[in-house]
Amino acid sequence: MDIKPTVVVGPPDDGGLRKVVIDGKSRGKVWSHHELQKVLRRAGVAPEAAIDWHGGNCTVWPAHSWGRRMTGAVMAAGFLATAGMCAWIGMNDSFDALTFAGRVTGFVFLFMTVMELIAFAAGFDYWRKQKMQYSGPALLFGALVELFVGTVLLLMFFANKSRPSYALYLLLWSGLIACASWSLWVLYRRRVWKALRYPGRIAVGAIISTVLVITNLAYTQIYLPSISRTLVQGTAEIGSPSLNRARTKMYLRVRLHLKNSGEVPVHVLGSIYWIHARLASDPKDKYKLLKPGELVKPPGQELSPGEEISEDVVAEITKPEDVNYEAVTAQVEAYAFRQDRMRLDAEYERSGKWRGKLAKEGKDDDPPSPINDGKEYFRYQSGISQSSELLNLTRGRERVTVWWLYRPLPVVYVHVASPDDKKVFNLKDPKEQRQAVDRYGLAFVRGSMAQTPYPQLLREAQVRRPK
User: Fold this and answer.
1) d(C-alpha 43, C-alpha 453), whole Å
2) Alpha-carbon distance 196 to 78, whole Å?
3) Of 224, 197, 17, nearest to 100 (Cα)?
């Protein structure tokens, strides 16, 4: 007489799985009646064998296959999208960010990439046989990381007032938050944390670690940069004049300096010097420009703390004894930005063009009024990128334009904006460059003015004239 095996199917657990026991030995858990038949065939039990049902008959299968697979697929898609985003940021920032804090942030994102990949792999076990004890908690941590990444990126996106062209990222990060919130809700209903021995302690440890990471990033990326100021100084020194033998020309030597007296390296975006004479006979104090020029060539040159650039230039005054000058003045102006705040494209130093060449290219209307007022100008322009890939994603790339203008008093203007920004550049609005100042440590350097009475210079030149 054949002995029929004893088959017992237990009640559904929190996840909808029902345990199968054959002759007192566990054969695993199943989601559906179809999977139960597979287990019976592998155990050599006839399909028509009697089954002892606990917690519901053969029609009670809370976890439907299609719903379970869809849930797992959506979670997996969220984990993969988060892992891809974290990997992109981490790979770029861990070795290429301009600051140490940025590189540490890059390694943090690489760590979160690993966590998301673990959660992705754990999903295959949790939504099938649940053979691994900690596959559920792995999904829970993965969803928390997904929510954290999406929230941080979205908050930085709005805090930096990113451009409309980055709407795709806005949708992506909003989708990550929605997917993570839904995943946490599903996992909460399944009480996946019960697999952990001390879930309360683990939760407290995770919260403390997150607070420490956020505090460290705030200290290193916000507080420390805010107290390190850009300090670049410019000076001009008027030297001794001399006359040629015919006394028809006076040569005036001027020494120009630009020094980084601060604590952080900087790049010089643009610089200008001028030497001019003030007309004594004009009641409106008009000036005659003697010599303008650029002090730092090519632009974009780095100045380390304590480093200085000096140059001697010579201004020429024709018929010095016939002109009616009151004084000769020399001054240096420049714009510099912090090296740890942004990168200049390599093409910047080669992008300089005069207005005539820009007119041939149809770009002479690029500078808005009052820059484009008929005067001659020289322009540098190129794209810039942020100090880290994390900021590139949330702020977007921008473009810097430097105008070097010829006028009775030459001047340099700098404008930082998105390449798609069509806003008119208003030189009279002090808020125009406030964002660039805050983001990049952009500093306007107005050097001390050197001024000498012209009659004094003429007397010195006459005394030293060649015989």
Assistant:
1) 109
2) 24
3) 224
**Encoded tokens for 407:** 């006028």
Contact between 79 and 116 (Cβ < 8 Å): yes
CA angle 411/417/420 to nearest 5° reads 130
For 258, phi then psi, to 5°, come to: -140, 120
DSSP three-state, residue 135: helix
Q: Do 276 and 293 meet the contact criterion of CB atoms below 8 Å apart?
A: no
| Nearest CA among 464, 336, 338 for reference residue 402 | 336
C-beta of residue 122 within 8 angstroms of C-beta of residue 363: no
> Do 337 and 296 touch, CB atoms closer than 8 A?
no
Task: Determine if the peptide bond prior to 370 is cis (ω within 30°).
Answer: yes
pTM: 0.72
pLDDT, averaged in runs of 10, over the chain (467 residues): 70 74 77 76 75 75 71 88 92 84 86 92 78 78 90 82 64 89 84 65 66 67 62 88 86 91 86 86 73 86 88 89 88 87 83 79 59 70 84 81 77 77 56 68 84 88 70
User: 262: closest CA among 331, 340, 343?
Assistant: 340
The owner of tokens 């010599």 is: 291
List of residues 6+ apart from 239 with CB closer than 8 A: 252, 253, 254, 255, 312
C-alpha pair distances (Å), 350 with each of 300, 339, 440 = 10, 19, 22
Q: Whole-angstrom Cα distance, residue 299 to residue 352?
A: 9
